[in-house]
Amino acid sequence: MKKQLYYFSFLILFLWNCNSVEQQKTDIVTSENDLDAARNFIRAALDGKYDDGKKLLVNDSTNFQFFAEYEKLHSKLNEEERRQYQNSSINIHAISSINDSLTIIIYSNSYKNNHDTLKLLKTQGQWLVDLKYLFNQDSDTLLNPSKEN
Question: Has residue 149 been placed in a domain?
Answer without folding.
Answer: no
